[in-house]
Each structure stands twice: as structure tokens, then as C-alpha cells.
Amino acid sequence: MVARRKVAVVGVALSDCGRVDDATPYALHAQAARRALADAGLDRSLVDGFASAGLGTLAPVEVAEYLGLRPTWVDSTSVGGSTWEVMAAHAADAIAAGHARVVLLAYGSTARADVRAGRRTGTLSFGTRGPLQFEAPYGHTLIAKYAMAARRHMIEYGTTIEQLAEVAVQARANAALNPEAMFRTPVTPDEIASGPMIADPFTKLHCCVRSDGGAAVLLAAEEYVRDCRTEPVWVLGSGEHVSHSAMSEWPDFTVSPAAVSGRLAFERAGVRPSDIDFAEIYDAFTYMTLVTLEDLGFCAKGEGGAFVEKGRLRVEGGELPVNTDGGGLSAQHPGMRGLFLLVEAVRQLRGECGDRQVRRGDGSLPRLTVASGTGGWFCSSGTVVLGAG
């Protein structure tokens, strides 16, 4: 049996993000990809694997062509916001097995600009094909499905709307330290409570921002690490899971698929939740952060509300800094945001985050992190454990 190679993230980058009115999604893919390659210091000719989703009729074939790539390994897995953690897991497995040497993950979206220009409307649902046809007559919007799950958690465990609001308050506090975040002005629980109702119990600031932007991540086999200009961040373990499509098939609204993907990732990495220095968690809505913290094992089921109350998620003074760039609630959210979690996780482990840099109790840089993406309406999850070089 051939020994499996170690795999590292060697380059990460964001395209221009936030309000980008003069670029196409293809251009944002390319901008992020160029920056990630420059970050790694690797030549484009070494890239023999490519993964992307969400753009084009034949994604990622069209995007690869636009980027001038002719990959011999390709992945177009599309499972919503968790796509990128799942793709990173697939890429790491392919590299470890010798099927690729360097894999590029790339994403770009002009979700905000398209709405403003009238090229699309807000994403209220995913359509009425397949199993979704049985829910569509009842008016389930995408946001309403998350709101229903949050309300179930409140009923089951006494979680309060004030506790959910704390997730948004602390995300904004972290964003205030990030000069690239879309919204940096601090918010209070009262401001969140008094905002316009979107889907009970969510007011506006319980929901992610809509932005433009792209991201790219470059993974490489261990023998290429010495040629890179950056310190490697090693992929230690990963897990993925899908739980349901129709809400009627979801056994428990208070348990996300991260309960499975997280357990697998930690087991395969050989670490425990208590070993993690900070976490990057998909946060299209405040409830997503809270329930994912429970399901990853950072607190017991039903104790997420109490866990987030004490400022634990803050970069400054928090016991477990979460979404250190401000997350989808404040930094940026152009659609399938999972790749942005990986970019921020790597930058933190490399000590490149300036005022928002996470430090351990002794002042040293963090050593371990977890990035967990969620797709659909808690339909899928991908979790990746990363370690500093």
C-alpha cells in the first residue's frame, strides 16, 4: 500500500468583497485565485486539481476554462454553504492518495450587485422541484425554515431571543476589528430586537448580510510545502453529513448535521473540542452559530444559549473566539460562504489578522481550529480541523 501524503493549505485569498458593482462573478473567481497563488508563491502550472460550484451551466468546467486551467482532478459537489468544507475534504483525500498534487478551490458571487441591478431577486426559496413541491404550497421560505428550527430550540430548551441576539452582537464586535468587514459599527441587543421582523423570531440583524465577493484556497501535497512562501496549515481531519431535504424528514429541528460531521472530523484529527483555540462557523442566521456550537461539542445540547451569553465568542476576551472576521452576520456573505471560513481560519493560524488576531492564554498564536459549514436549511454539513505548521 502506498503511504498517504500529508496535505496542507498553502495559499488563501479573498477577492474584493462587500459592495462590488463593476465585476462579474467570473472576475471575482479569477481575482481570488490569482491572489491565492501569489500568497502561496506557487506557479499556476502546478495546479492539476480544481473544485468550484455555483456558477455556469457546467460548473466547474466553465470556471476552469476562464482561469486557463486544464485540471486532471475536478469536483463540483454542491451542497449549499457547506460545499467548500466538503470540497476541501475531497481535495485533501485526492492529494493524499496521489490523484492530484495541488488543488485550487474557488468561488465568486455578485449576489448583492445582481439584486441592486435587477438581474435577480432575493433568494426566498430553492424552487418547487422534487421533494420541495410538497412544502411549497405552505409558503415555506428559506429564512422561515431556519426560523422554525430556532423556535423549536427555544421551546425545547428555553433559549431566549436575547441569547440569540448575543451571537449577532459578538459577531459585530469581531467585525469592528476587521477593516475589510462590510459592517463594523457596534450593535446592541435592543437595536437587534427593534429591527424589522423578517421571519419570527428573526429580526433583520439575526440574518446575514448580502454582499458581493469571492474566495480561493490552495491545497498542496507535503512535498510542495518547502517551495511555498507561507507557513503550511495542515488538514488534520474532516467529516461530512447530509440529513434531510424536506423539513418533514428532519428528525429533530434542534440537532444539525454538524453533530455527525464534527464528530467524524475530531475523531479523524485525533483531537477534542476542548483542544480548539477558535472556530469558524457558518452563520447565515444567529441560530446556526448557537446550534452548531452545541453539535460540535463545545457545550451540551440545549446549553448553547447560556454558552454565548458571557461574551465567549469575542476575539477580545472570549474563551472561544468564533467567526473572528465578523462572519456572515457582519463581514460578508455573498452566497455559499463556506470558503470564507477556511480563508479566515488559515490566516488566524498563520498570525496574519492584525487587530483581530486570536492569541492563546500565554500570548502565543493559536495552534488548532475547526471550520464548519452548513448548507441548505441544515440539510448538510462539512467540518474540517486544521493545525498550524
What does this structure look like?
The strands form 2 sheets. This protein has a 9-stranded mixed β-sheet with strand order 3-2-4-7-1-8-11-10-9, with helices on both faces. A two-stranded antiparallel sheet has the order 5-6. Helix 6 packs across helix 9. The chain has 389 residues and is an alpha/beta fold. It is globular and about 55 Å long. It has helices at residues 25-40, 61-67, 83-96, 111-116, 142-157, 161-175, 189-193, 258-269, 286-295, 304-309, 327-330, 338-349, and strands at 7-14, 49-51, 73-75, 102-109, 197-199, 202-203, 213-221, 233-242, 278-281, 368-375, 380-388. This is Acetyl-CoA acetyltransferase. InterPro entries: Thiolase (IPR002155), Thiolase-like (IPR016039), Thiolase_C_2 (IPR055140). It holds the Pfam family Thiolase_C_1. It comes from Streptomyces purpurascens.
Total helix count? Answer: 12
- H/E element string? EHEHEHEHHHHEEEEHEHHHHEE
Say how many strands there are. 11
Give the biggest beta sheet. Answer: 9 strands, mixed
How much strand content do the residues show? 15-25%
Strand order of the largest sheet: 3-2-4-7-1-8-11-10-9
Q: What oligomeric state is this?
A: single chain
Helix content: 25-40%
Low-confidence stretches: none
The N- and C-terminal alpha carbons lie at a distance of: 27 Å
Structural class: alpha/beta
- What's the overall average pLDDT, rounded? 95
Radius of gyration: 19 Å
What is the global morphology?
A: globular
